[in-house]
Structure formats: C-alpha cells, structure tokens
Amino acid sequence: MVRLDLGSVVLRRMRLEDIEAVKGLIKEGCEGTENRLILHLLTRPLALFMLAVLSSILRCVLHSFILALVIPVFIVIIYLKLTLPRSTGILGARRPYWDYVGSTYLAERDSELENPYSRMARPVGVRGKAQEKAKRKKKKEEKGKEAENHDMEDLQDRARVAGEVWVVDCDGEVIGCVSREPVNRSGATRICRLVVQSWYRREGLGSLLVQCLTNREKERGSRRVYAHVPFPSRVGELFFRKLGYRLQGEVADGEEVLNKDFEEPQKGWLGFPVTKVFVKDL
C-alpha cells in the first residue's frame, strides 16, 4: 500500500488514452468476484434441483456416478462464464461491453470533479505547470485526430447509452475509476464499477471519488443515487453503508421509507439477482 496525498489527485472524465488503463482496473477489481457470483448462483435451491435432475438422467445413460455428477456442473459453469459478463456486466454494471466503455469519453471532454483536498496539495512550480499544459494540449490534438477516423454520430449514440466513466489521475496514472450509468428517470443517478488500484486502497480514494461525483449529481438536480454492488461482495456492501447508503427496501431510522424505490437489481441465470441495490437520498 502506498501513502497517497488526496490533494494531489485529479478527478476527471475518462479520455481516449485512458481506455486500456480503465479496462485493466476493472479486470483487476473483478478478480474472484465472478467466481463467487457463479458459486452463489449454483447453490440456489432451484439450481441445485435442476442439477440433481440432470445428474439422475445422465446416471442412467453413462452408468458412472462421478461423470453424471460432474458433467452438468461443468456445463453450467462454462455457460455462466461465457454469458454472465454479457448479460449482467461486472461489478454491478449493466453495460459490460468494452466498446461502450470506450465510447464514454466523448461527452463533456476534460470535465473535472471538484476535489475538496486540492487546496492542501503541494504547489507545483511554473515549469511543471507549463509542461502539464503542453502535455494536455498534445493529448487533445491527438484525440481530435483519432476522433476524425470514427463515425462520430454512431459514437455519440453509444456515449449516451454508455453513460460516463470518471477516473482518478495521479501524476498521469489512472489509479481508480467509477461509472455513472444513464437512468431514464429524472432526479436519479446510478453508479457502479467502482475500482481502486490495489496499491492505493484504504486511503480514502474510493470514498472521495463517490462523494465528489454525488455532489456533482446533486448540483445537477439528482435527488437519489443508486449504487449497484455484486451480490457476493461483502466489502462493497460495507463500503456503501459507511457512506450513508442503505440497502433498497430497508427501513431507515425505525420509520417506513416514504419514497418508493424504483431501481431493480440486475438478474442473471434463472432470474436470480446478481446485484444488490443501495440507495442514498440527497
């Protein structure tokens, strides 16, 4: 773990050159999550009943108890490995395809979130500022040339569907990200795919990213934030509870929840929920 100065990081929209780094972060954050999710689905009563029926049928055909037991489980695991990321996404996302992730950089380019710790950051010299400015200018020019080679109308449509990806930039390195997905209801915001690089965890970076994004959405008129967390993720559940979120449908402060919850958890194989929805009223 590396000691991080929160005032030195920049919270900004993902750019074209950040796509591969964001992919790597999401893959790192998903290590083990997919396997735990598959185990969760396989151990549901209905799934166990179906596997038992298939094993009984194969037992009569193969005359081998071990093969009859292993083959159905193996087939289901392969099926879930192939279809789970496409049907439900990863880390609670509804849009798993990499091309959608890559198209989110188009809208509101170079936007930044206000970092409350930035005033405590160490000052940067004039030379360092000039170099950073020249570097950003060069990246903008390269990004403009790259964009001209694409069908802009198609990419803009994808960007509207994909939503936004916000990243944490530390000296030019992407060390964290979170996705804000589009919601068809006014006054609501959905976030998912919160990942922090393993070397920088437990430094308050994830909390800073979520809170700054939430403040931005509140200024834009959002009244409620939904956070989708993978079903077996105990760490994700504790994280959002510490930030004041509650599990959708829970009773808050001993009273009934007045506002109706509209967000549905994502469902996977046989209709079993694969995400938990956490809610916070702004």
UniProtKB/TrEMBL annotation:
Transmembrane segments: 64-84
Protein name: Probable N-acetyltransferase 14
Domain N-acetyltransferase residue range list: 124-263
Family under the similarity heading: Belongs to the camello family.
Top-level taxonomic group: Eukaryota
Residue ranges of the region described as Disordered: 124-153
PANTHER family the UniProt entry points to: GNAT FAMILY N-ACETYLTRANSFERASE, N-ACETYLTRANSFERASE 14-RELATED
CC terms in the record's Gene Ontology section: membrane
Role this protein plays: Probable acetyltransferase.
Subcellular location: Membrane
Composition-biased stretches (Basic and acidic residues): 141-153
Entry-linked Pfam families: Acetyltransf_1 (PF00583)
Stored InterPro entries: Acyl_CoA_acyltransferase, GNAT_dom, NAT_camello-type
Natural source organism: Alosa alosa
Main subcellular localisation: membrane
Gene Ontology molecular functions: N-acetyltransferase activity
Keyword entries, A-Z: Acyltransferase, Membrane, Transferase, Transmembrane, Transmembrane helix
SUPFAM superfamilies in the cross-refs: Acyl-CoA N-acyltransferases (Nat)
